[in-house]
Amino acid sequence: MAIWKSPATPKDINERLANWMAGNLGIVFTEVGDDYLKATMPLTHMTAQHMGFMHGGANVVLAETIANIASILCCEEGQTVVGLDINANHIRPGKSAVTAITKPVHIGRSTMVWEVKIYDEADKLTCISRFTGAVIPKPE
After folding, report:
1. Residues 29, 84, 44, CA angle at the centre, nearest 5°?
2. 3-state SS class at 63
3. How far apart (Å, rounded) are the C-alpha atoms in residues 58 and 41?
4. Model pTM?
5. What is the mean pLDDT of residues 26-41?
6. What is residue 121's predicted lDDT score, i.e. its pLDDT?
7. In a domain, 126, yes or no
8. According to DSSP H, which parts of 1-140 are helical?
9. Cβ–Cβ under 8 Å, residues 13 and 68
10. The domain spanning residue 93 has which CATH number?
């Protein structure tokens, strides 16, 4: 059974983010499952650090983006989510485009917690992150 209160397609999400940081970094949502979201991010001059590996900060942007969108899709009408905390453990250097998958740890009335795992093109875990968001009234 799907957890989403505001269902969306990858196309809907990508159009929403096109002109913001996520779109500028090439983050593309590819899948909306019953209890997870999946998105990709290319390895380019915009996402790499000086040695050519995926920048840790780019991983964090990907993790916060996918977890925040997942949180918003779980909100009641009139609510949204803003980030309270995010952490990331970089497991190995990213040498290719990456794919992130987020799943909920906790979906509450005032906070949400999401785990994000990021994999390289060889399907090796490169980063694991945890996002905590605060549920707030949607600004008018």
Report:
1. 40
2. helix
3. 9
4. 0.96
5. 98
6. 96
7. yes
8. 10-17, 21-24, 56-73
9. no
10. 3.10.129.10
Total domains present in the chain: 1
Catalytic positions: 64
Given a cut of 90, whether residue 55 has pLDDT beyond it is: yes
3 state SS of 33: coil
Instruction: Name, in order, each residue with C-beta under 8 angstroms of 39's C-beta and a sequence gap of 6 or more.
Output: 27, 28, 29, 30, 62, 65, 66, 99, 100
Residue 61 lies in a domain: yes
Decide if 4 is inside a domain. Answer: no
Residue type at 39 in one-letter notation: A
Report yes or no on 109 lying in a domain: yes
Which tokens go with 97? 């485009």
Query: How many CA atoms does the CB half-sphere of 93 hold within 13 Å?
Result: 7
- What count of Cα atoms within 13 Å lies in the side-chain half-sphere of residue 36? 12
Domain that holds residue 31: 10-137
